[in-house]
Amino acid sequence: MPSVAMVSRLRRGDLFFSRLRRQLAVAVCPFTSSAAAHDGGTGVSGPHLPVLIVGAGPVGLVLSMLLTKFGIKCAVLEKSLSFSRHPQAHFINNRSMEIFRKLDGLSEEIESSQPPVDLWRKFIYCTSLSGSILGSVDHMQPEDFEKVNSPVCVAHLSQYKLVNLLLKKLEKLGMHVYPQDLSDDWEPDSPLEKRILMGHECTSIQPTNEGVIVTARVHNGTKVEERRFHCSILIASDGARSTIRRLVGVDMKGERGLQELISVHFMSMDLGKFLLKNRPGMLFFVFNQDTIGVLVAHHLEQGEFVLQIPYYPPQQNYQDFSPQACEKIISKLVGWAPQDVQVLDIKPWVMHAEVAEKYLTCNDRVILVGDAAHRFPPAGGFGMNTGIQDVHNIAWKIFYFLNEVASSSLLRTYESERRPIAISNTNLSVENFKAAMSVPSALGLDPTVANSVHRAINTGLGSIIPKNMQKAVLEGIFSIGRAQLSDYVLNEKNPVGVMRLEKLKRIFAEGKSLQLQFPAHDLGFCYKEGAIVADTSEDTQNCNRAGSGTVSREYIPTGRPGSRLPHMHVKPFTAASTKETLSTLDLVSGDKPEFLLIIAPLKASYHIARVILTKAEELQVLLKVCVIWPQYSCQSRSTGSRTELKPWKNYMDVEELKKERSWWDMCRLTNNGVLLVRPDEHIAWRTESDKVADAVLEAEKVLSQVLGL
């Protein structure tokens, strides 16, 4: 068995080789300049920053909040001069809401800011917003409200409103937004941490022996300045068209150009009031002879909407979608003309399904997160949610790397864990998008035919036809297609219409249309490898591994390494009444990157806990023990853990509040079970205390493997 001194020497050796690799990286990074190789900081603005985040969207802001809470100094660069008010993403899934619970009550503020759930729980399919309803799907189930699988429900809140809430939280932590003209004279030695610097567009990246130098272009009044920042780690959270990803030469792989659309952000209290009274919902899929579109109701009570319209360039021009033209389209989709429509923003965008070839580059000092690492169709709302979970995964790893507890091998587990999840979510998003297309297909309007015709005009013989004729041909074909949606076809007296409407009913009844919630993926995603000690037990079917190809609603809790810690209500011994309960997820700290060891009150389990506490202290790893007692077990509770874990004080006792089965049954372990949980609430290791022959050797092996030593 290796001694503590030997393990310490091995750690120092590992960190030495990590530093050596950083020096070698300067020679092999494709964008290294000779100046970068020798410039330890000359001309660099401000002191060296541990972490620089590029991109101040929800993903970048959440990471800045996590790092700030962990005591890691960081700053954010944002190329825009102000924050966008385009609603963009709006669905927040269970796992993201669980993360937000730990961000100083952010989930509660989201719940109080969002519309009432009954106003957005349905998707509605209709011939117009005031016309016939073809079908509707309710996406909320009783278990969602009963909080069986999670202590918090999903939410519906526009992205810009979420950003505003995050900025307020960051202000309380001392992090503030600064305009591009910070001062008339840029002070190179001014502190940069806890700043969100607007109007800073990254133009180049240069690796150094100590990290990365980032050059940003800043429009300061009438002049353009260049500012340089030196950081240990650069985080690319700068969106789907990431500048950082392009600068480091990382390619995206997958399906490009699935669909082009025009996004129209508008306000209308008249329309909001009408839908509130007659047919409240989140998404409205409208199919009629005049036009086709999807309306996202961001807030019916405030009259805020986004309309998504299929777009076929170059035959259709972005300029064709003027505010006046969009108002006419809105009237055709509504079935009457709201008098108070105010078009706020019109944007073209392209739907892709791609994942970056790698997430870390430049000797693991440049890390891609969020849309910079993956681009999904919006079907299922996986984009922002996957990004939030990306940074939840990497934040604690950055902490232990920068504090020299772990080497960069721990950072690399971010890619081995999160990239397979992104690939799985990409596949699921594409399948869900195809499910959405099954509805117009059932109505005789196959979108694949429209896209094939469009491609033929652009690339086949149609490409030699004059542009104005191409547009006429395309619109003529689309007009013929939309004729399938006429009242003459879609009625109970037309056999074709009856057949199509029956097919549509089956699609809705069998859950084969666009879905909103995927608990098996949202809560059940599981890491195969990475910062875990994988085991080979028989409950692999209960762990929804990335790339499994299984689309299931059912989430099955498990204690398998790599999976999220299951949720169960427990009562702290210090609680004054049974109403004071916690979720098992609350046992993991949200304010520091602390591991959690969960045991039952057994002699062998207490012994393992003492050994792991000792080893964690040697390695400078934060760790707390939680003892879960059976419900109604009063004997020895008051002194049991205090006696068994003495002199350690970083532990807590809780009691199960089970309804059907015990905690250990849920985790598929006996009460000899031992679980090591990471700071991101994923299980790193599990065992049975009566099967551990040498606790000291086991503790060294487990912590070394999880930390990548």
Automatic annotation (TrEMBL):
Pfam families: FAD_binding_3, Rng_hyd_C
Top-rank taxon, per record: Eukaryota
Domain FAD-binding: 49-424
Molecular function GO terms recorded: FAD binding; oxidoreductase activity, acting on paired donors, with incorporation or reduction of molecular oxygen, NAD(P)H as one donor, and incorporation of one atom of oxygen
Cited Gene3D superfamilies: 3.40.30.120, D-Amino Acid Oxidase, subunit A, domain 2 (3.30.9.10), FAD/NAD(P)-binding domain (3.50.50.60)
Gene Ontology annotations of biological process type: ubiquinone biosynthetic process
Keyword Flavoprotein part of the UniProt annotation: yes
GO cellular component: mitochondrion
Keywords, comma-separated and alphabetical: FAD, Flavoprotein
PANTHER family, sorted: FAD_NAD(P)-BINDING OXIDOREDUCTASE FAMILY PROTEIN, TRK SYSTEM POTASSIUM UPTAKE PROTEIN
Name this protein carries in UniProt: FAD-binding domain-containing protein
Organism: Rhynchospora tenuis
